[in-house]
Design a protein that fits this description.
Elements: E1 6-11, H1 15-27, E2 31-36, E3 43-44, H2 49-54, H3 59-62, E4 63-65, H4 67-72, E5 76-78, E6 83-87, E7 92-95, E8 100-102, E9 105-108, E10 112-114, E11 127-129, H5 133-145, E12 148-152, H6 156-167, E13 171-176, H7 188-200, E14 204-207, E15 211-216, E16 220-225, E17 230-232, E18 235-238, E19 242-244, H8 247-251, E20 260-262, E21 273-275, E22 280-282, H9 290-304, E23 318-323, E24 326-332, E25 340-347, E26 352-359, E27 362-369, H10 375-383, H11 390-397, H12 404-414, E28 420-422, E29 427-428, H13 429-439, H14 444-451, H15 461-472, H16 492-502, H17 507-513, H18 525-536, H19 550-554, E30 557-558, E31 564-566, H20 577-589, E32 594-597, E33 603-608, H21 613-620, E34 632-637, H22 640-643, H23 651-662, E35 671-676, E36 690-695, E37 698-703, E38 715-720, H24 723-740, H25 747-754, H26 756-765, H27 767-781, H28 787-792, H29 795-802
Parallel strand pairs: 1-2, 1-9, 2-5, 9-21, 11-18, 12-13, 12-18, 13-14, 20-22, 34-35, 35-36
Antiparallel strand pairs: 3-4, 6-7, 7-8, 10-19, 15-16, 16-17, 23-24, 24-27, 25-26, 26-27, 28-29, 30-31, 31-33, 32-33, 36-37, 37-38
Helix pairs in contact: 1-9, 10-12, 12-15, 13-15, 16-18, 24-26, 24-27, 26-27
Domain BFD-like [2Fe-2S]-binding: 420-469, 484-533
Binding site for siroheme: 682
GO molecular function: 2 iron, 2 sulfur cluster binding; 4 iron, 4 sulfur cluster binding; flavin adenine dinucleotide binding; heme binding; metal ion binding; NADP binding; nitrite reductase activity
Length: 810
């Protein structure tokens, strides 16, 4: 029964309002709660919109509270419904559709709106803000038809929008009025390092540029700057800032200034009406960061539930963000002046930067770039106006005697209880400590399920693990069992063991015998099971094409316009004039849109019509380059001793041999090799899964490099003297990775999970095990066939795939 409960109405279904509701639900059941949301969705995490834009997450992945959560907690949810005003006399919340809901208490949590520059042309087609999922969906559609984009604003939202659009294949320029990116959060040095990193990721910049007009007729065609120069753009994203959404408050006669004015308990000028988050103004400040809205929500929840709480006195402004894979942090004062003493350290090799500002020896601000391990400790020290000492200096600048583990533990211990660990979901250190001590939780996954920490971007996972370790001490276990997907609680090793023990031979049999909770599996587990079966039974397993991703089914890369990219092999990056002529003739005959020289030293034929793909394969007469597959993609080489005056080893011949030997073999993820003829490293061995560097005495072998989103320098595994030993070691490494790697786990992650010493022992030191690994990979290699040739000889499959299939991406 709810008629005796107080009626609480939340205007706004975003992060601020719903996090406040979550806190209320932990404290009391006295409220009958109604939520109004203007969007047709449940509560989702706006911080992660850029991940949806770039394709690494779906909308479902960023939902914080699904439909069932509202039902389970007895919350009435009105989606797609905008509130017009609050009727104080009738004590009712009134929606634009005429619905009226009575209230005892109201929380306004309407957030903010994107600020649109007051310049001519902003009403043209192709001009949007970047604030919600509908903006994100519009950007995804635009990227299918247009190529040149401009993002106005070099703050967090602008950079995230630019990153997403680059991933969608657009030519993106960030236009920023100031000379430094994120000038409100970063100093010049950190901003310069961030800009350089983003430029490496493909983003262009127009700094110090003031946009005065958007050009074009009905649709935007470009930007005109104050110096009268023009930037061509078919799509413009406005990300120049936000302004509090005060519409409901103003329509209701509530006092507003820059935002909805509130006191220290979030009370507005209207009795029993409160405002929380970006829509409000507290002590003259409007906060646009996520941490303050959670701090406000916690105070408000306790106040409404009659629980003693200190008033909200404002937030110490700090920023902890991950921008395009780069961690940045700032707190307090970070732009030095004549009154400051500056402590700074820059490491160009590791791309890290740390700066601490002192005023009369008191710590007043800091900036971190690349490594933000000290962020919690710095925030606490600066908040407490700590005087710098030699001991603190040694701890923060790495000159003391304690190791990184002790340093992390000390940092966690120094965190205040109320400090927010998970910025995406507003989870404090105390919340995490309490569930560990009171509920006996022992894993990050259990904490995620209970509190929401780490469930969104995952950036706080290391800190959660440190808190676990600090609280549990010797009881902390670093290895945590995880199912390969939501269909099962079984991990990779358990599944492989069960396949072998029970003789399971198909994905359906595995799902049935091992009690999958989804009988058909999902897009995560089906390809994984298909790979594990093929790895275990290379000679007898019948590959399930339906369990592969679309590119692998088609043996070509599908593009966003429905055409395909065909990539023939060029062993070691070497080709012949005859093959080049053949590629040119076929490209002209079948109207190939672009022939692209890739970073892997081969040619992409981009824009082949679906029905022409088999004809292109046939007329090229070259093997597939496997650009679409979880297997060996390329072996990059320098010219080596054949031509280079510095070359000590024949890198071209070795690279071509390795590529011919290991092509077509299924692996857990895509795989790249580089072979250098000398230590000058022109083929970039440091960022490859296997990197080989020639020297006067033989070869040095590196593993686990990655030049992608999660960049990682390769680790030196060993040195060998002969070509034969090098080939044998490459075979053993690849097979060990095949047998122990998780599906879709790159070697960069595999090396960190397994440990370099474990791998070295298995493939370098243990000669008997190395020999067995080589024997198993040699047997598996006897079973592989060129997919293009196979498809050309299979008329039924070719017809079904290339004449009847509607192109879809998976």
């Amino acid at each position: 029964m709810t008629h005796n409960k107080e009626k609480l109405v939340i205007i706004g279904n975003g992060m601020a309002g719903i996090s406040t509701v979550e806190q209320i639900l932990k404290l009391t059941t006295r409220f009958d709660i109604t939520v109004f949301g203007s969007e047709p969705h449940p509560n989702y995490n706006r911080i992660l919109l850029s991940y949806v834009l770039e394709g690494s997450k779906t909308f479902d992945d960023i939902v914080l509270n699904g439909w069932d959560w509202y039902k389970e907690n007895g919350i009435t949810l009105h989606t797609g419904t905008t509130v017009s005003h609050i009727d104080e006399a009738a004590r009712e919340v009134v929606a634009e559709n005429g619905d009226r809901v009575p209230y005892d208490k109201v929380i306004i949590a309407t957030g903010s709106n994107p600020f649109i520059l007051p310049i001519p042309g902003t009403n043209k087609q192709g001009v949007i803000g970047f604030r919600d999922i509908s903006d994100c969906q519009q950007m995804l559609e635009v990227a299918k038809s247009y190529k040149k984009a401009a993002v106005i604003g070099g703050g967090l939202l602008g950079l995230e929008a630019a990153k997403g659009l680059v991933h969608l294949g657009m030519d993106v320029t960030v236009v920023h009025l100031m000379d430094d990116l994120m000038e409100r959060q970063l100093d010049h040095q950190a901003a310069s390092m961030l800009k350089a990193e983003l430029e490496r990721q493909g983003i262009k910049f127009a700094m110090g540029a003031k946009t005065v007009e958007l050009l074009g007729d009905e649709r935007v065609a470009g930007l005109r700057f104050a110096d009268n120069t023009v930037l061509e753009a078919e799509f413009v994203v406005m990300a120049v800032g936000i302004k509090p959404n005060m519409t409901v408050a103003q329509a209701s006669g509530i006092w507003t200034k820059r935002g909805i004015v509130v006191d220290d308990y979030m009370q507005t000028s209207m009795p029993d009406v409160y405002a929380v988050g970006e829509c409000n103004e507290h002590r003259g400040v409007c906060y646009g960061l996520v941490a303050p809205l959670f701090e406000q929500g916690l105070v408000l929840a306790k106040h409404l539930c009659g629980v003693d709480t200190l008033p909200y006195e404002g937030s110490v402004v700090s920023t902890k963000l991950k921008i395009s894979g780069v961690d940045v942090f700032s707190t307090g004062e970070f732009i030095e002046g004549p009154e400051h003493v500056v402590i700074a350290h820059k490491d160009e090799w590791k791309q890290t930067y740390k700066k601490i500002l002192l005023n009369q020896n008191v710590m007043v601000g800091a900036v971190l770039f690349g490594d933000i391990t000290d962020s919690a400790n710095l925030q606490k020290l600066i908040k407490q106006k700590t005087v710098m000492t030699d001991e603190i200096y040694d701890s923060l600048m790495g000159t003391g005697s304690c190791g990184s583990g002790a340093k992390s533990a000390a940092s966690v211990e120094a965190m205040a209880d109320e400090e927010i660990v998970c910025g995406c979901n507003g989870v404090t250190k105390k919340t995490i400590v309490d569930v560990i001590t009171e509920k006996g939780l022992t894993t990050v996954d259990e904490i995620k399920a209970c509190t929401g920490a780490t469930r969104s971007c995952g950036g706080c996972k290391p800190v959660v693990e440190q808190i676990l370790q600090h609280v549990l001490g010797d009881g902390f276990k670093t290895s945590v069992k995880q199912g390969i997907c939501g269909c099962t609680t079984l991990g990779r090793d358990e599944i492989v063991a069960e396949i072998k023990a029970k003789g399971l031979t198909s994905t359906k049999e595995i799902m049935h015998v091992l009690d999958w909770n989804q009988p058909e599996g999902c897009s995560k587990c089906r390809p994984a099971l298909n790979y594990y079966l093929g790895m275990i039974y290379p000679d007898t397993y019948q590959d399930e094409k339906e369990s592969r991703f679309v590119n692998e089914r088609m043996s070509a890369n599908i593009q966003k316009d429905g055409t395909f990219t065909v990539v023939p092999r060029m062993y070691g990056g070497v080709t012949t004039p005859e093959d080049l002529k053949k590629i040119a003739d076929v490209s002209l005959k079948y109207d190939v849109k672009v022939v692209k020289v890739t970073g892997g030293q081969r040619l992409d034929l981009i824009g082949v019509k679906k029905e022409d793909v088999p004809k292109v394969w046939e007329e090229l007469g070259m093997p597939s380059g496997y650009a679409y597959a979880k297997s060996l993609r390329t072996v990059k080489t320098c010219v080596g001793s054949q031509f280079c005056r510095f070359g000590t080893q024949d890198s071209m011949s070795m690279g071509a041999f390795l590529e011919r030997k290991f092509e077509r073999l299924d692996l857990p993820a895509k795989f790249k090799i580089a072979v250098n003829g000398c230590p000058r490293n022109c083929a970039e061995a440091c960022t490859k899964d296997i990197g080989i560097v020639g020297n006067d005495g033989g070869w040095e072998l590196f593993i686990g490099g990655n030049g992608g989103i999660k960049a990682r320098l390769a680790d030196s595994l060993c040195k060998v003297k002969t070509d034969q030993e090098l080939i044998e070691l490459c075979a053993a490494i690849i097979q060990y990775y095949r047998e122990t790697g998780k599906y879709l786990e790159r070697t960069s992650e595999w090396v960190e999970r397994m440990g370099l010493e474990t791998i070295r022992k298995a493939v370098v030191d243990d000669m008997e095990n190395r020999k067995a690994l080589v024997e198993r990979i040699e047997f598996a290699l006897t079973q592989v066939k060129d997919p293009w040739t196979k498809m050309l000889n299979d008329t039924d499959t070719r017809t079904a795939l290339f004449q009847d299939l509607e192109p879809t991406a998976q």
